[in-house]
Amino acid sequence: MGQRGRLIAGAAGAAVAVAAVACLPVRYVVEGVSMAPGLLAGEVVRSGWFPAGDRWRRPRRFERWAVAATDGTAIKRVVGLPGEQLALRDGDVVIDGRMAIKGPRLLAKLGRAVAPEAPHRVTSGLDDELWAAAPQEVLDDSGVEAVRSHVLLPVRDVGVAAVLRVKKLPRDGFVRVRVQVGSRLVPWRLTATGWHAIVAGRLDGHLVAAAWQLPAAGTSNESVRWCLPACAPARWQVAEPWSANGVDEPMSPQLAIRCEAPHHVVALERASVWRDVLYRLGANAGDFWSLGADEYFVLGDHPAASTDSRQWGPIQLARLRHRLP
């Protein structure tokens, strides 16, 4: 091969190497706890393959992105999209006057497990109260060490996540389960043997609930940080405005699980209280923002320790570098 051929081959090889490197995921090391509980300090998160393609991607609501901040790169979650009117009301995100409801999968990642006070189980009778948690004050920032001093705030949005095992079906072919959230009762019919997840609570101004069947030995979480059982569905099966109840509910509602079946038919494997993330207002920041045609609003998953669009205001698309799974 002549010198020209060697030069062409060398240039082609270098181009292939550069292209290969450009296809590799971008690696970010997490600093601080602004994205807790999903990401903690020192952990590594990576973009997807072909990260250069993210510059042509339009971010979607609740996606996690690496953001160009004034002091480097930060990781935040997109909550507001171009052209929207966004507000923070009582810890919730309001888009164009309507609550932005988190689906079960997102709640599983953003919510926190809360240790209930004195749960109890009744062991006799056909209409057993399998589990209950008395109303208790739930504060934000529980379970995560913050990087700054602040006053803890009460969280309204709480609920129950339970795993039940149906050992056998009664003659009518289903097991009746009722979940109490405050003055509301959500009925379910479990029509198969095995493990079932049931989740219900007050979330983003709504009564929400979902039930789904789990795989064998389905009592484990997909992640120890997730506040819901594994395999959560994308959507709630019940999502009704909370205010439609017409009852003045306390800050923290009564939670309970009842089952119209004896214990040799169904067993409660575990139950816990969860709470939603509370989007507190930033210091010296407003509570309403109008987003331009190329602007996005980003927030940290742990607002008490996050600097984000509450302080920065809406950011341009060019500052969103890579989408992070």
Tag the structure with descriptive keywords.
325 residues; mainly beta; Umud Fragment, subunit A; Jelly Rolls; 2 domains; 6-stranded antiparallel sheet; 5-stranded antiparallel sheet; globular
Distance between the termini: 47 Å
Shape: globular
| Number of beta strands | 21
CATH fold-level name of the largest domain:
Jelly Rolls
Strand order of the largest sheet: 8-17-10-13-14-15
CATH class category name of the largest domain: Mainly Beta
Helix/strand order: HEEEEEEEHEEEEEEEEEEEEHEE
Low-pLDDT residue intervals, each spanning 5 or more residues: 6-20, 117-126
The domain count comes to 2
Query: Structural class given helices, strands, pairing?
Result: mainly beta
Assess the beta-strand content as a share of residues. 35-45%
Radius of gyration: 24 Å
The main sheet comes to: 6 strands, antiparallel
In short:
The protein has helices at residues 3-23, 104-110, 309-312, and strands at residues 27-29, 44-46, 64-69, 72-80, 85-89, 92-95, 98-99, 112-114, 128-133, 158-166, 175-181, 184-190, 194-203, 206-213, 238-241, 255-259, 266-275, 288-290, 295-299, 315-316, 320-324.
Describe the structure.
The chain is 10% helix and 36% strand. The protein has 325 residues and is mainly beta. The protein is globular and about 65 Å long.
